[in-house]
Amino acid sequence: ERPGSLRESVPFTGFGGPQLQPTASQLDYAKRFDVAAAKAFAAYDAYVASLASLQPALKTAGLKPLAGLTQEQP
Predict the structure, then answer these.
(1) How far does Cα 63 stand from its chain's mean position?
(2) Rg (Cα) of the chain, in Å, rounded?
(3) Whole-prediction pTM value?
(4) 63: helix, strand or coil
(5) Which of 21, 28, 45, 49 is most enclosed, with most CB atoms within 10 A?
(6) What is the chain written as a DSSP string?
(7) Tens digits of per-residue pLDDT, 2-36?
(8) d(CA 30, CA 19)
(9) Whole-angstrom Cα distance, residue 25 to residue 21?
């Protein structure tokens, strides 16, 4: 509902800049975050795909079709 809320919810991993090696716990966190983000994008894409079947029914009912039914790319 708020513009930019996804961006604001993405935590900063704090790798410490290019001159510092990430720790094992930071690498583990990054891996878990990537898996969770991939699952979230897949769930959203499945939801968007499910809405496409509503378009003909909306048109038949004389209603405006849904706009913005595009899949997101991370």
Answers:
(1) 28
(2) 19
(3) 0.55
(4) coil
(5) 45
(6) --TTHHHHHS-------TTSPPPHHHHHHHHHHHHHHHHHHHHHHHHHHHHGGGHHHHHHTTPPPPP-------
(7) 555 555 555 555 555 556 788 899 889 999 999 99
(8) 18
(9) 12
CA 21 to chain CA centroid, nearest Å? 28
CB within 8 Å of 26: residues ≥ 6 apart: 13, 14, 15
Query: Which residue bears the tokens 């708020």?
Result: 2
Total residue count of the chain as it appears in this document = 74
Contact 30, 13 (CB under 8 A): yes
Q: pLDDT of 39-73, one tens digit each?
A: 998 998 888 888 888 888 888 999 988 887 766 66
